[in-house]
Amino acid sequence: MGDGRRVKFWEHRWAEDIVLKEKFPRLFTISTCKDSLVSDIVDLGQIKSGGCQSWNLGWRRERFVWEKYIEEQFLDKISKVQWNMDGKDWLIWVGNDEQAYTVKSGYSVLNKEDLMQSCEMFQLLWSLKIPPSVIVCAWRILLDKLLTMKNLGRRGVQLGNVSCPICQEGVETTQHLISSCKVAQKV
């Protein structure tokens, strides 16, 4: 880790090679700094050779007792990170032992991680005797690739309002449309 000015705190692999929002989803949901960089959250003046012990974490509410246990694990992970304050952040390719990207290593990673072929759920889905349009829709739902307001925003489409246009309650996400939209449930 360099100075943390180009690394997203919750979304990039910087703490023990994990994505924090995947390892600690409960804490991510109550965080007020979901899009912050590491440098926004770390107290740069408190970094020592053993890591950092002071973090400016923002929570939208008090943590429950059981969440405080998760928070302890979380702080333990991020406090062990080794810092190099003299340099900028850098990316490391994990597709080969040399930690340098090559076309061959990229192709190898893509072939090994062909989730569509190895996942039984997708194999079952594509083997069903139903119209292809239904299969494609189900496939997009499983991959969270429906063109919802949230996904459009993630792709850079400028939206004034991301709330569900059907029920006007909550952000329009795939999960909202499938399970919690009151109007869609009636259909």
In brief:
The chain is 43% helix and 5% strand. It has 187 residues and is mainly α.
Q: State the distance separating the first and last CA atoms.
A: 50 Å
Give the % helix. 40-55%
Tally of separate domains:
2
Low-confidence spans: none
What is the number of E strands? 4
Describe the structure.
With about 190 residues, the protein is mainly alpha-helical. The chain has two domains: about 1-115, no CATH class; about 115-185, no CATH class. Helix content is about 45%, strand content about 5%. It contains eleven helices and four strands. It has helices at about 20-25, 25-30, 40, 65-80, 105-110, 115-120, 120-125, 130-140, 150-155, 175-180, 180-185, and strands at about 15, 20, 45-50, 50. A two-stranded antiparallel sheet has the order 1-2. A two-stranded antiparallel sheet has the order 3-4. Strand 3 (about 45-50) and strand 4 (about 50) form a beta hairpin. The longest helix is centred in the middle third of the chain and has 15 residues, at about 65-80. The protein is globular. The N and C termini lie far apart (about 50 Å). The mean pLDDT is about 80.
How are the SSEs ordered, and which strands pair?
Elements: E1 13-15, E2 18-19, H1 20-23, H2 25-30, H3 38-41, E3 47-48, E4 51-52, H4 65-79, H5 103-112, H6 115-118, H7 120-127, H8 132-142, H9 149-154, H10 174-180, H11 182-186
Antiparallel strand pairs: 1-2, 3-4
